[in-house]
Amino acid sequence: MSAMFEGNALSALQTTHCPPQSNYSPQELALEIKAFISGVDQTKGRKLSVRDHARCAVRLLRTVPACRGAVLEHLRGVYDEYVAAFFQDLEAESDSGSNSTTGGTNANVSNLEDVIKEIHAVLLEFIRLNPKAWAPLVSSWAVDLLGQLSSKHAGRRATPHSSSLNELLQLWMSCAATRSLMECYSQCLAAMLAWCPDACVDALLDTSVQHSPHFDWVVAHIGSAFPGTIISRVLACGLKDFYAHGYPSGDKSTQLQAIDKASRVPKIGSVVGILGHLASRHSDSIKRELLRMFQDSLSPPPQNAPSSSGAAGWENSPHLRRATVPFLLQLAALSPTLLGAVSAELVELLRPPVLLQLQAQFQGLPREELENMLGLAVHLISQSPAGGARVLRFLADTATPASVIISGPTPSPHDGVREACDRLLQMLLLHLHKLVYNRPEGDEPYSHTTSSIAMPRVIPFLEELQAHVGELCAETLRLERKRHLWLHQLLCLLSVYGGPSIATEALCQLLTQARNPEELALASQLHSPLSSSIPGLLPSAVARCVAQIHTQNLNSRELAQLLNNLATAVQSQEEDCKAGGSTAGSSLHSSMAAQVGAAVSSHLHDFCPLLLHGDTMVSRAAARLLSCSQLPRACSPAHLLLISRAAVAHFFIALRQRGEGLKIGGQSGGEAVGYSMRLLSRLAAYSSLMLKAVLQQLVEGALHKGNRELFGGQREGPGEDGAPLPTLGPDLGVSLLNINCKFGTTVNFSGSVWSVFHAGVIGKGLKPPHTPSQSDADKVNQNMQTLLAVIVQCCSSGGGVSCSNGSGTSSGNGRYNHAGETISDEPSPVNAEAAKVIAVALVENVCPDVANGELSWPPEEHAKTTVERDIHIRRCFEANPVLFHLLRVVAAGRPALCYCSAVLRGLLATLLAHWEASREPSVLDSPWHLQASCLLVSCMGEGQLLPPVLSNIHEVFPHLSPFEVRLLLLGVWEYMRGNSPMPQKFTFSAEKGVFFRDFSRDGDVARYIAPIHSVLHKNIDRLGHLCWRFQI
């Protein structure tokens, strides 16, 4: 042995492998070696203590490099004894209640601490002076010893659980021995990075696999110290190990390998663990490295790259480059953290050139291997926690056929790439279908017959898509070939997975965004599979639509579209009933239409304010929806009155818009009027309360000063509303209060308010003449007939509820085309009670101060006491020509005209006064009074207030003089005074269904027709052909 330690040989070895030391003689070195081997001091003959034995080993390590293996093996025990003493000290302190966590009173710890420092200093000096010789050896020794110590003492009472990584790291770093080993390994790694990083990282991975999870704190500390190096080298080593252990795998399912963490690939689990520890602080670095690795595997290999085992070593191997993508898929499958970090950004990299490179790389793989990879990709997509919307858009855009125009600047992909994405998308939908419909309810375990692998309770891909329901619906409604089928199927799965809330939102979005019947059909197709599993889906969807209206989340265009879609859905039920469809599809569509109709019916009071919406398109759509919706069976009177007011107001607005020729959203004003007419008919037929409200509001609206022009009326002239007349002269400043304060026996009329009469103000001249506005006669006639048509419909016994779609319009020929049905010019039988409502409304609006009981007629001289009221009545008729037509409707519903007695009396009194005062040679010089006289007598005859012989006198009025007309009208007054218009004089005819009056009970009529015969005899040359009309 002494030959080994000759001076020259020792000097050479020291120069090469260790720092310069003081020279020992061969005899001294021999004694040191014997003492180290035997553990006995050779000079004193006593057993060496642990401390002395360790110092002897250190001296040999310094002087005899050939002994380094044995010395390092011996030092394992020294470190182990120190760590054991360290934990004993901690446990003793814990038992005694001490709060200290570092330091101790154990003798072994005190004796060995300086030895540990000495060993640490020697190893660091060796690594610094000759890293290539010492760094690989020390790194392997240190990391293996750290793994052994971590596993051996993991069960101690003072050791935290392996899941508490921060506490575990803090504990081990407070121990001098393990801290020394960690620093040595860090120095070795720093020295080896430049020339041999794989060996150091391989040792780390091997130890991590062997001692995980107790070794995780070492990996966490090293990774935090060298994040870039550890991440890249761990990935490179994992790739090489993945390829070395059986890639490609043609006999086993790649997806099963990915899910099973105890895979036959030994290091990939450790790679996942290390990257998982580093992800909390270095997620960006990990993401960049993974994406760089993916890009480098597809790009051409670098030219003139060294074929060493450095960082770029795997890039020069075509086999490793081909295995990179499967390796990354395996990593993502084993770590949801890594999957979430790269999924969103990876989609941005998949441009057509990259996709072509991927296709070329996997073109030569066996079919089974490709299917396994697609299955793994589908699994990863379904478990992707972020970027699901991007992935879906990418797959849909890439798989869309070339004949479909894709939105955006994305170029058309290659046919092979398109087919692969098509296949991937179909597999994804199938996989999601299995996951959604095989999910357990609550804590119910999965059936063993469905799958041997437990399905996840949460599907991250669908969870992330729940926030993009609106975008998904918008893409589905584009109706692109194949694309909308995929998205619609996904929307259905998402609705089932998300439950009633997501299904309701999806259906609401489809109802809101659909722009034509084809797009609206998608809502029915979505409802069909969901209706069986989600009860009450459509009522919830309609309620959500109403909530959007209340919160004003929709603009005018979207709101109008929603209302039109709801109306189309409701009307489809009527169309199916007309067509008599009995197929399964039509029955399902009809079922949805019925449910939509019922849901809309329960929210009519929410839709009715939209009739008065500022946007014409919205108001017309609301009228269309309400016109085809059934009223609820039970509805509060307040809601009914609210609906009736809005419907009547919209009716007059629609008339005005039709006159202006306004066409909105493809609908003419006539269609909007048709919707309003049908709505009013439905409301009137609902109940007697609604009938009364609708008719009363129609009369009030027709007589309103803002609607007069629609029916040929006059605008309100100056001074009619009580406002001062600016053209009559300066204001004299007369105060009504001052006048009332002047008490006296006479009334001072000069300049006071009492001097204001209908012709003007005494002392200030006549009122300026009011020129009536000129209206289009055709439009006025059309509006007039439309108003009368809707009133007659409301008053008719049929009620108008049998009309179908309310899309017809009114025309000027007296016919109303409604739902394709032509109504003849013959008036429908008018309900007597409805006509009475109109009569009362007329009296209230024309003459508010008249009591309903004033049915009897006083003598003609009594008219002098009601001059003011009679003039007001006449002015109302002058300003509102529609009054005569309304009187005719009232007359048709006998005996309702009796309740208009006060209005008829007042108008007749003013006509008598006019004809009496007239000095014109012919009645044709007073056209309005002539027309009013004829219409009044005709109306009273139609209402059977006058016998036929008196009701025909209007036929001779145009041929008479004013005096003769007054004479005949005076005979009418006398008849009315002698035969008061009482409803009790009418008898109901069951055969005809109307009331009639038997004039034979009223006595002799001959005394009332004597003036008529006198006038006829006087004008026999002109009226001879009319004599037969006045025979009793």
UniProtKB/TrEMBL annotation:
GO cellular component: integrator complex
Pfam families reported for this sequence: INTS5_C, INTS5_N
Highest rank taxon of the organism: Eukaryota
InterPro entries in the record: ARM-type_fold, INTS5, INTS5_C, INTS5_N
GO biological process, one term: regulation of RNA splicing
Residues of the Integrator complex subunit 5 C-terminal domain: 267-1023
Regions annotated as coiled coil: none
Occurrences of domain Integrator complex subunit 5 N-terminal (ranges): 27-243
PANTHER family: INTEGRATOR COMPLEX SUBUNIT 5
Protein name: Integrator complex subunit 5
Biological source species: Pygocentrus nattereri
Gene coding for it: INTS5
